[in-house]
Design brief:
Protein name: LYPD6 protein
CATH topology: CD59
Largest sheet: 6 strands, mixed
Strand content: 25-35%
CATH class: Mainly Beta
Distance between the termini: 61 Å
CATH architecture: Ribbon
Keywords: Cell membrane, Disulfide bond, Glycoprotein, GPI-anchor, Lipoprotein, Membrane, Signal
Subcellular location: Cell membrane
Shape: globular
Membrane topology: Lipid-anchor; GPI-anchor
CATH superfamily: CD59
InterPro entries: LYPD6-like, Snake_toxin-like_sf
Number of domains: 1
Order of helices and strands: HEHEEEEE
Number of helices: 2
């Protein structure tokens, strides 16, 4: 029982790690499958940003998509509950921002960006839950 208690204390002391720019393995640029091809981090309901980005498949986005989308569900305390990232068309990016699901105690923030693997960080508040493009739409 003492050993289990010590292990539990150690696990609580470990802080979650986020995925950073230094974690990206850059490959030599290859030819894209179509003109202006791009990639996004993609995952469905990952536990946090690190788990999403760490295991995201390295594939080009399908034709008809143009932006990288991120949805971050978190507790009011800021702790991640779920992360979803994917390639999307313009219409999926027209309502970025944060909403509160008060009866469940969650905040859901969404953002979109333009550019290959631009969706590394997560939206956490109204300051970063935005739609950023490389040029005016």
């Amino acid at each position: 029982a003492l050993l289990l208690g010590l292990l539990a204390d150690c696990l609580r002391a470990v802080q979650p790690r986020d995925f950073t720019e230094q974690d990206i393995v850059r490959m030599h640029p290859s030819t894209t499958p179509y003109p202006h091809g791009f990639k996004c981090f993609t995952c469905e309901r990952a536990a946090d940003n690190y788990e999403c980005n760490r295991w995201a498949p390295d594939v080009y986005c399908p034709r008809g998509t143009r932006y990288c989308y991120s949805q971050h569900t978190m507790k009011i305390t800021g702790e991640s509950v779920s992360v979803t990232k994917r390639c999307v068309p313009l219409e999926d990016c027209l309502s970025p921002g944060c909403t509160y699901v008060k009866h469940e105690g969650y905040k859901i923030c969404t953002s979109c960006c333009e550019g290959s693997i631009c969706n590394l960080p997560l939206p956490r508040n109204t300051t970063d839950a935005v739609f950023t493009t490389l040029a005016p739409i």
